[in-house]
Amino acid sequence: MSVSKRPRPEPRPEIMAIAPYVPGKSGVAGLAKVHKLSSNESPLGPSPNAIEAFRANAAALASYPEGSSRLLREAIGRRFGLEPERIVCGNGSDDLIVLLAHVFLSPGDEGLYSQYGFLEYPIAIRAAGATPVTAKETRDTADVDALLAKVTPRTKLVFLANPNNPTGTYLPFSEVKRLHAGLPADTLLVLDAAYAEYVTRNDYAAGMELVSANENVVMLRTFSKIYGLANLRIGWVYAPEPIVDALNRVRGPFNVNGAAIAAGVAAIEDVGHVAAAVAHNTRWLLWLSEEIARFGIGVTPSVGNFLLLQFPATAGRTAKDADRFLSARGFVLRAVGAYGLPDRLRLTVGTEEANRGIVAALGDFMAAGGKS
Ligand SMILES: *Cc1c(COP(=O)(O)O)cnc(C)c1O
Which helix (H) or strand (E) holds 248? Predict the structure, then answer.
């Protein structure tokens, strides 16, 4: 019996070379209640004002949203002292990561990022037909010299998550400026500051002044993390005028929905809610770091709302064993094997109950050698 080979539509080969993004698990089979500590969501949730604005938008579902997210860009502009004309909003910052890659990368070009950089970057680079290039990190931190050593005439885009996910580490602004200074003028530096609000170090900056002063730097931000609006999908980019112009030509004409625009405005104006989220995170990030390190689990110093934990290679105490043990107790962490970190798990700072619970569970795990 011969199987007829009928032609069929074939995706571009580089599309099929993409390893699909695997989101953090959200549940455990058989458990009704779990603490989801796998996606860096806010344990405080969104501002009540944002929820109210979202509900109020229900009356407008039949109408197209305002296509340029004008009200949201103006609210962001007021909050950060930026010109709304230099902001583009997206359906999550993922939307903008993909658009930036499509706009600035051609087949044959290279997109550069650090060894443990956010996994959306190689996906976007490949989807644009370009080649992803990585530079080794030093102590789980992006290394400016290593990045600059990988720059070639084909490097058209450099993605830097600062702080980085999944490591939680950051580059001081002096290092970001040194990276920028070493890049050719026609290479775009994308500063992805998804966790900027959480950082309490005075040598950190999200990069707005670098965007303002240069033609080849953009800064990405999101409402998914500290604003607690991951489900609504809102991101934005602050960029030089020619880049704004290019992005506006290719983005979906209604890429941010009306409920997202309304809730985003309410969220960014609730400065008190953001301050409460920072205070909660600062307190519990430190507490979790100290308590977990006492068990002999490696904890990468983090300035975000999550911690990268390194488990020993000892049989029964590996990251895989820990994932199984913790899941059975209702704690869902993020496996990061896809990042080349098979001995680690990423833990999001949660509610007080979740934080105390995960520390108790990790203590039991290390004491029991993984036997539940
Ligand atoms: C979570 C995250 C984002 C945000 O993605 P959204 O699409 O806005 O939800 C962007 N960059 C990094 C590094 C992240 O961890």
Answer: helix 241-250
How many CB atoms within 10 Å of residue 61?
A: 9
Q: Is the CB of 92 under 6 A from ligand 1?
A: yes
Output b/e per residue, 81-91; b: 16+ Cβ within 10 A.
Answer: ebebebbbbbb
Residue nearest to atom 3 of ligand 1 (CA): 194
**314 shares a domain with 254:** no
The predicted model scores a pTM of: 0.96
Residues 220 and 295 in one domain: no
230 lines ligand 1 (CB under 6 A): yes
Q: Answer whether 162 contacts ligand 1 (Cβ < 6 A).
A: no
Give the whole-angstrom CA distance, residue 106 versus residue 242.
18
Which among 108, 232, 129, 116 is positioned nearest to 166, based on CA atoms?
116
Chosen domain end from 213, 237, 270? 270
**Whether residue 61 is found in the same domain as residue 156:** yes
C-beta neighbour count of 135 within 10 angstroms: 20
192 lines ligand 1 (CB under 6 A): yes
Atom nearest to 224 CA in ligand 1 = 9
Q: How far is the CA of 106 from the centre of ligand 1 (A)?
A: 24
Contact (Cβ atoms closer than 8 angstroms) between residue 198 and residue 225: yes
Q: Is 179 exposed, middle or buried (0-12, 13-18, 19+ CB in 10 A)?
A: buried
Closest alpha carbon to 68 in 52, 51, 92, 84: 84
The closest residue, in CA terms, to atom 14 on ligand 1 is 194
**Does 222 contact ligand 1 (Cβ within 6 A)?**
yes
Starting at the edge strand found earlier in the chain, the sheet holding 306-310 runs 298-299, 306-310, 344-348, 334-335
Number of C-beta neighbours around residue 1 at 10 A: 2
Going from the Cα of 7 to the center of ligand 1, the distance in angstroms, rounded, reads 38
pLDDT mean by block of 10 residues, the chain; 372 residues: 78 89 83 94 98 97 97 98 98 98 97 97 96 97 98 98 98 98 98 98 98 98 98 98 98 98 98 98 98 98 98 94 96 96 98 98 87 54
